[in-house]
């Protein structure tokens, strides 16, 4: 806020200080506006009663001060992280668990399947390898038709596979690999 009032240090002097009838704090008379409310309380009550005006003013200010806006944003984020450490950590854990494997996959699939498609794909196989049905750890994606044989990164050409099956299948065509695996175990 622009009208930060310095806390009163030392004695309260009733000739220059006044008690706010909202927050009960003693503040310099200069921070009152001919009413019983201090400027902080007056501003707070105004903000509560005029959310649209406050938002419009904030948007106007942000447009005029992009640098300060970004800085305010950063310090607000920092403060939020400090005050909500548990929440932030939990959501980071959740992110690592659920989204990051997919963003990494998506990066490797350069412009092919989308994250939502990958999640659906993996969910539809219950998070297991399509070949051996072991849990995917880590999650890897296999191309039914290998890229080198003209396969694409589109979702239709992808199946979830465990690292072992994926590296064993390597660049083999699926049918060839399945036949080899059936023959040699
Ligand atoms: Zn007050
Ligand atoms: Zn497998």
Polypeptide structure, described:
The protein is 51% helix and 8% strand. It has helices at residues 39-49, 51-64, 66-83, 85-98, 100-108, 115-124, 163-169, 174-184, and strands spanning 17-19, 26-28, 140-143, 158-161. Strands 1-2 form a two-stranded antiparallel sheet. Strand 1 (17-19) and strand 2 form a beta hairpin. The N and C termini lie far apart (71 Å). 11% of the residues are buried. The mean pLDDT is 85. The site of one zinc ion has 8 residues, from helix 1.
At a glance:
With 185 residues, the chain is mainly alpha-helical. Helices cover 51% and strands 8% of the residues.
Topology diagram in text:
Elements: E1 17-19, E2 26-28, H1 39-49, H2 51-64, H3 66-83, H4 85-98, H5 100-108, H6 115-124, E3 140-143, E4 158-161, H7 163-169, H8 174-184
Antiparallel strand pairs: 1-2, 3-4
One zinc ion is lined by residues 20, 22-23, 25, 37-38, 40-41.
- Tell me the domain tally: 3
CATH class category label of the largest domain = Mainly Alpha
For the largest beta sheet, what order do the strands appear in spatially? 1-2
Low-confidence stretches: none
Provide the residue-averaged pLDDT.
85
User: What's the total number of strands?
Assistant: 4
- The end-to-end span amounts to 71 Å
Topology as H/E string?
EEHHHHHHEEHH
Main β-sheet: number of strands, strand sense, barrel status?
Answer: 2 strands, antiparallel
What is the C-alpha radius of gyration, as a whole number of Å?
Answer: 30 Å
Strand-pairing-aware structural class: mainly alpha
Q: How is the CATH topology of the largest domain named?
A: DNA Binding (I), subunit A
Bound molecules: zinc ion
CATH architecture of the largest domain: Orthogonal Bundle
Count, helices = 8
Q: What oligomeric state best describes the polypeptide chains here?
A: single chain
User: What amount of the residues lies in strands?
Assistant: 5-15%
In which range does the helix fraction lie? 40-55%
Report the principal-axis shape.
Answer: rod-shaped
